[in-house]
């Protein structure tokens, strides 16, 4: 029987990670048209509400049902506003590993939301799902994503040369693909212990989860 992720909601001091729903369509579509998201992800551009709805109602449920991934909305605890998306892909239940990525809306950047959401997800994966390895891949020039990986305790394992396709805006306004390197990061259960303690001492968050 294929392992699958449960329907999960994870809360931190400032955030709630929960399944995407159709109410998120407008905010998700708006967020995905940001220039940095266009540059560092493979999300189709322009990204419209039909694409957002397909992601929420078709792609995400299929990934979870197949046991290969999980897509969660990241929302502010107080306002319930959509902050971003955190995604698990390429999950291998035999090896007990998965690949994690995160997207943060332009207005929410610089607040530490990506690291807070990623660390909460990692805590849940290691403690409740029994995973033993989380992998992250960041484009060589995507320093913001690399800072998140470092902040949550990831270890840089090396470079996949010429393995990433990024996008850049040309003079006529079109998006052109450019090849670059991937930096590979890993996170193991023991890597987050000190990080969690540091956040607690600094008035950080305590993650908890409920699922059915």
From TrEMBL:
It comes from the Bacteria. InterPro entries: Acyl_CoA_acyltransferase (IPR016181), GNAT_dom (IPR000182), Ribosomal_N-acetyltransferase (IPR051908). It holds the Pfam family Acetyltransf_3. Residues 15-171 form the N-acetyltransferase domain. This is GNAT family N-acetyltransferase. The lineage of its organism: Bacteria, Bacillati, Actinomycetota, Actinomycetes, Kitasatosporales.
């Amino acid at each position: 029987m294929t392992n699958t992720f449960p329907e999960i909601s994870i809360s931190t001091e400032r955030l709630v990670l929960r399944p995407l729903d159709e109410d998120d369509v407008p905010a998700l579509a708006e967020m995905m048209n940001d220039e940095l998201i266009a540059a560092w992800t493979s999300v189709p551009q322009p990204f419209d509400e039909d694409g957002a709805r397909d992601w929420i109602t078709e792609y995400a449920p299929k990934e979870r049902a197949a046991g290969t991934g999980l897509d969660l909305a990241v929302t502010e605890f107080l306002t319930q506003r959509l902050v971003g998306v955190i995604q698990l892909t390429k999950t291998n239940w035999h090896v007990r590993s998965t690949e994690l990525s995160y997207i943060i809306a332009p207005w929410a950047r610089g607040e530490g939301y990506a690291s807070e959401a990623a660390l909460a997800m990692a805590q849940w994966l290691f403690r409740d799902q029994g995973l033993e390895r989380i992998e992250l891949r960041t484009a060589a020039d995507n320093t913001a994503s690399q800072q998140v990986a470092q902040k949550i305790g990831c270890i840089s394992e090396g470079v996949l040369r010429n393995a990433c396709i990024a996008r850049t805006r040309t003079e006529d306004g079109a998006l052109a693909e450019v090849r670059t390197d991937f930096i590979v990061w890993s996170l193991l259960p023991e890597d987050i212990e000190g990080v969690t303690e540091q956040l607690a001492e600094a008035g950080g968050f305590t993650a908890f989860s409920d699922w059915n």
